[in-house]
Amino acid sequence: MNRADFEPGPLAGVDCRANEDRWTLVFVRDLRHPPEKVWAALTDPAQLREWSPYVADRDLGSTGDATLTMIGADTPEGPRASVRRAEPTRLLEYTWGTDVLRWELAATDSGTQLTLRHTVENRDWIPKVAAGWHLCLVVAEHLLDGQPIGAIRGEDARNFGWEALHDAYAEKLAIAGSGWPDDLTPPR
To answer: Which of 1, 25, 58, 105 is within CB 3.0–4.6 Å of 35 for a Cys-Cys bond?
Structure first.
């Protein structure tokens, strides 16, 4: 696929849940690939570089500290991260600054159902997070298909439909969106 022909496709299944003073985006997407292949894309630094908003300083498939550096961030060092749970092909959970990301993989007849639970401190970030992960996971699917198109992240995301996705997710989740963030770096 040519990057110029990129289409973000339909919205994913999403929900927003309150957790005391924090908010969790529940983002569900069906992928055409088996859990083993999806797991590798979620944990292998070389694959993460091709689709995610950050680079990892190590394989995320085992528990322990890591550094996830946001691509395009003003500072070369990312917020602290710690892999809390790593159950290959089923569950990956880590902190990223003050955020918590929990990736759940379930085998289906046609591949994998991926459920991402991304917990943030500010409810206004939920549509932003949904739009960003939407773009990233479409790119990841191309990578898994063997047709990498290169990561779409940071300011570049605006050229590939981020704002329309943000607005659509804000409407779907009934969260008034504030648009493009001034700072893309997650809180430390």
So the answer is: 105
Single-letter amino acid, residue 183: D
Q: What digits encode the pLDDT tens for the residues 103-147?
A: 999 999 999 999 999 999 999 999 999 999 999 999 999 999 999
CA 89/CA 107 separation, integer angstroms: 9
Domains along the sequence of the chain with CATH: 29-173 (3.30.530.20)
Question: Shortest CA distance to 169 belongs to which of 136, 129, 139, 123?
Answer: 129
How many whole angstroms separate alpha carbon 35 and alpha carbon 22?
Answer: 29
Question: Cα-flanking dihedrals φ and ψ of residue 181, to 5°?
Answer: -70, 145
- Looking at residue 166, the DSSP 8-state letter turns out to be H
Contact 100, 119 (CB under 8 A): yes
d(CA 66, CA 59) in angstroms, rounded, equals 9
CB neighbours (10 Å) of residue 147? Answer: 10
Work out the number of other CB atoms within 10 angstroms of the CB of residue 49.
14
Query: Using an 8 Å Cβ cutoff, are 128 and 162 in contact?
Result: no
